[in-house]
Amino acid sequence: MTKLQLSNVSKRFQAVQALKDVSLELDAGQMLAVLGPSGCGKTTLLRSIAGFEFPDAGAISVDGKVFMNRRTWVRPEKRRVGYVPQNGVLFPHLTVAKNIAFGLSRAERKSSRVSDMLALVGMDGLGERMPHELSGGQQQRVALARALAPAPSLVLLDEPFSALDAGLRAALREEVRTTLKAIGATAIMVTHDQEEALSMADRVAVMRHGCCVQVADPVSLYKYPADLGVARFVGEATLLQAPVANGCIDTLFGRLKVASGCPENCRRATIMLRPEQFVVGKPQGQPVSGRVLKTIYHGHDALIYLRADAPLGTEDIRVRVMGAPAFAPGDRVGIAVSGDVMAYPQPSPEDERAGRQERAA
Asked: Compositional bias of type Basic and acidic residues: which residue ranges (predicted)?
């Protein structure tokens, strides 16, 4: 069942096109992460759904009820949408319990709703505390409980973990995901953190310059980016220039097969390789060898920076390996590639010149 539907939503702030023909659908019970750099339109999109911004064009509906189109405008307080702002923003003069109760009817305040919400976010017994007595993570839990208390049809989270340190952010985002899944909530989270988006969401929408350039599940988004911009933004990538012939590419790493959906024949293409697609080992018997420049250990995995020997020079690549690296700077290693690769057609020099002339005209 479709919970949220956006059709060609656009919003301009004077000279800035914040949103441009954004269309999205989200099924009930799913979480969507809206991912993109600062200024791409993420927060404007969220505020438009909540009713805090009035789009210039398009339509927004939840559960089949139109919130906004050319003829209709539903005020924010009538939308039954929960909103968790960036820093929680609790009322400093109210207790935790009264913060959560804000927005509930008198009958709901007298019921067990507040205590149920405290239990849901793991804060039993803390209802009489004041916001300044809570840690940053606890304040965000209270903000989530307050948003969920009125049983909204949709929950919106605007960079909810950006003010927290890395360790707390990782733990809290898993708690929030578990909480939302436990009650079957439909949610949209805005973030610029790739790891956050890929680990929490059922679907990820990547925005750039006000446009939604790709919507996919996290695995498909990472493995099959829609264009080079998405490939560079989501994860790390090594890019090579090579022609594609009959679905194959001849590279310094040997003959590689392009992934399904890529052009099978292309005179000029950019090839994308993820760090985990490289396999390193002893130099003997491998298509190409190289020298280790440095290693960066992350605990669960490590990145090895290599300079591969190429027929016409060198190629710098990054390799991801599980656990501690087995190679030290200066070591020589053999390098191979595993799996299909993404290929993106590039315009010819003639097309590029024509495009520049057209834009200048």
From this structure: 350-361
Copy the structure tokens of residue 132.
Answer: 């300044």
- What pLDDT digit, counting tens, does each position of 268-316 carry? 999 999 999 999 988 887 778 899 999 999 888 899 999 988 765 567 8
Q: ∠ CA(270), CA(272), CA(277), 5° rounding?
A: 150
Tokens of 232: 């560079």
Neighbouring C-beta atoms of residue 356, cutoff 10 Å = 10
312 CB-contact burial (10 Å; exposed 0-12 / middle 13-18 / buried 19+): exposed
* pTM (two decimals): 0.86
Q: Where are the domains of the chain?
A: 2-228, 238-345
E runs forming strands in 266-341: 266-273, 278-281, 288-297, 301-310, 313-322, 332-337
Q: How many CA atoms lie within 13 A of 163 on its CB side?
A: 13
What CATH number was assigned to the domain covering residues 2-228?
3.40.50.300
The CA-based dihedral angle spanning residues 177, 180, 184, 190, taken in that order and rounded to the nearest 10 degrees: -80
- CATH classification (class only), 238-345: mainly beta
Assess contact for 27 and 81: CB atoms under 8 A.
no
Q: In what order do the strands lie in the sheet with 238-244?
A: 238-244, 266-273, 342-345
Q: Minimal CA–CA distance to 20: which of 208, 296, 238, 262? A: 208
User: How would you label 56-90 residue by residue, b for 16+ Cβ within 10 Å and e otherwise?
Assistant: ebbbbbbeeeebbeeeeebeeeebebbbbbbbbeb
Backbone phi, psi, residue 139, to 5°: -65, -40
d(CA 159, CA 42) in angstroms, rounded, equals: 10
Give the burial string for 134-144 (b: 16+ CB within 10 Å, else e). Answer: bebbbbbbbbb
